[in-house]
Design brief:
GO terms for molecular function: S-adenosylmethionine-homocysteine S-methyltransferase activity; zinc ion binding. It comes from Morus notabilis. 46% of the residues lie in helices and 15% in strands. The protein has 342 residues and is α/β, with parallel strands linked by helices. The protein has one domain: Homocysteine-binding-like domain (TIM Barrel, Alpha-Beta Barrel). The chain has an 8-stranded parallel β-sheet. A two-stranded antiparallel ribbon has the order 3-4. Strands 10-11 form a two-stranded antiparallel sheet. Strand 8, helix 11 and strand 9 form a beta-alpha-beta unit.
């Protein structure tokens, strides 16, 4: 019986990408969209604050990305941790309920989106029968550095006190809850070092978690992850984990993506997911994004075709990207694949 589960997990994402037409579109920046809708995220909980104060805004952002063409929406649990909620005075039971709520809001958004689609305006029609666009809900797991709320996920240097066992213990209960929340998969995001990747892989195995997962790493040089660990080593850890159905890069400047995809493809045949940031740089001291000379929104989409040719098959955006970015990505890929199929 377990073998069957492993086989399903192994082909899960490849099958989904094929069902979507050869590529899948991931949503975009979350916190900045919440702020655009009026949320104040100056808080250690960051976007997870809205799970308490304004869940309707989370649902609205999910819907904006679905309207833009996303096939995968990622829950607002990136910075939602039991430890973080407890530090704000919530009980453990309340913290666990808020984690589940993050997935429920994404599911609600998907159902609202589907309900809005009239029968004569489904995304595509096969054999005279209406078919809904495939949409998955991914439960987000941010790194230990994200919980610290000091920019540590952009350095990956946790210090000697943070061991493999400490990381597993930190993430364990949150991963258990999200794995049983009804999410279609778990997205381990902005992974800054190989130690945390190893912690995730061991945790999935130890807890017998059999829903699909992806690991995405972050880089600031196009060669290594932000800690300085080799992207090849990190991607290899993800590739060796049977629950992992895709490996990729997020919250990384677009100009580094092509080389990183090429590196991942050297050590993994699993689908590659990429969702870069806008090319700006986060200043952990001022807690602001600083515009840089890198690729930003206007040029972002022009790189998608090159990323696809390098081997990526799932495309979205991270910090500072918008529904307009995702709409443009969806349009560019749709045009490319429609040409190739004619």
């Amino acid at each position: 019986m377990m073998l069957g589960k492993v086989e399903r997990t192994t082909s899960f994402m490849a099958d989904f990408v094929e069902k979507c037409g050869g590529y899948a579109v991931v949503d975009g920046g979350f916190a900045t969209e919440l702020e655009r809708h009026g949320a104040d995220l100056n808080d250690p909980l960051w976007s997870a604050k809205c799970l308490v104060s304004s869940p309707h805004l989370i649902r609205r952002v999910h819907l904006d990305y679905l309207d833009a063409g996303a096939n995968i929406i990622i829950s607002g649990s990136y910075q939602a941790t039991i430890q973080g909620f407890e530090a704000k005075g919530f009980s453990r039971e309340e913290a666990e309920a808020l984690l589940k709520k993050s997935v429920e809001l994404a599911y609600e958004a998907r159902e609202i989106y589907y309900d809005r689609c009239a029968k004569d305006s489904w995304d595509f029609v096969e054999s005279g029968r209406s078919t809904r666009r495939p949409i998955l809900v991914a439960a987000s797991v941010g790194s230990y550095g994200a919980y610290l709320a000091d920019g540590s996920e952009y350095s990956g240097n946790y210090g000697d006190a943070v061991t493999l066992e400490k990381l597993k213990d930190f993430h364990r209960r949150r991963v258990q809850i999200l794995a049983n929340s009804g999410a279609d998969l778990i997205a381990f995001e902005t992974t800054p070092n190989k130690l945390e990747a190893k912690a995730y892989a061991e945790l999935l195995e130890e807890e017998g978690i059999d829903i699909p997962a992806w690991f995405s790493f972050t880089s600031k040089d196009g060669i290594n992850v932000v800690s300085g660990d080799s992207i090849l080593e990190c991607a290899s850890i993800a590739d060796s984990c049977k629950q992992v159905v895709a490996v990729g890069i997020n919250c990384t400047p677009p100009r580094f993506i092509h080389s990183l995809v090429s590196s991942i493809r050297k050590v993994s045949s699993k689908p590659v997911v990429i969702y870069p940031n806008s090319g700006e740089t986060y200043d952990a001291v001022s807690k602001q994004w600083i515009r840089s000379n890198g690729v930003v929104d206007e040029d972002f989409v022009s790189y998608v075709e090159k990323w696809q040719e390098a081997g990526a098959s799932l495309f979205g955006g991270c910090c500072r990207t918008t529904p307009n970015t995702i709409r443009a990505i969806s349009k560019a890929l749709s045009e490319k694949f429609s040409v190739n199929n004619n």
